[in-house]
Amino acid sequence: MRERVPEVEAVIERELALLTPRIRSSPERVGALLHPEFHEFGASGRHWSRAAIIASLAATTDPEGRPVTVSAMTGVRLAPDLVHLTYDTEYDGSRAHRSSLWRRTEAGWLLWFHQATPFTRDQPAAR
Q1: Low-confidence residues of the chain, pLDDT below 50?
Q2: 19 is a domain residue
Q3: Per-residue pLDDT at 85
């Protein structure tokens, strides 16, 4: 059994919140979870800035829609103020391996970097 790490648990809670339609559709709520220097390499291969991802999520997310399906989420504290998460998602038939880096700031834990790599059903999920 893995040891419970409060920092990892706090970050997992925030990561899962970011995957819910209620949060994703709200620029204010998404912005409150993203570090000012946030950037992402999306499953499409696109490089997203903080402003671009906030705008895109608000424009394309139905707040009453279904959430992203998450599996195999694990986390590790890399340093006192840095947590790394990995997990898989599935949404509308698309699957992706995901990796997130969260930094603790004066405002709390904020997502600093995210990357998604698409994979197909015949490829193994993360372990």
Answers
A1: none
A2: yes
A3: 98
pLDDT of residue 123: 59
User: What is the rounded end-to-end Cα distance, in angstroms, of the chain?
Assistant: 15
Task: For residue 31, tell me if it sits in a domain.
Answer: yes
User: Is 127 domain-assigned?
Assistant: no
Give every CB contact of residue 74 below 8 A, 6+ residues apart in sequence: 85, 86, 87
User: pTM value?
Assistant: 0.90
DSSP-assigned letters across all residues of the chain: -PPP-HHHHHHHHHHHHHTSHHHHT-HHHHHHHEEEEEEEE-TTS-EEEHHHHHHHHHHH--TTSPPPEEEEEEEEEEETTEEEEEEEEEETTEEEEEEEEEEEETTEEEEEEEEEEEE-TTSPPP-
Chain-centre distance for alpha carbon 39: 11
Residue 67: predicted pLDDT? 83
Residue 125 lies in a domain: no
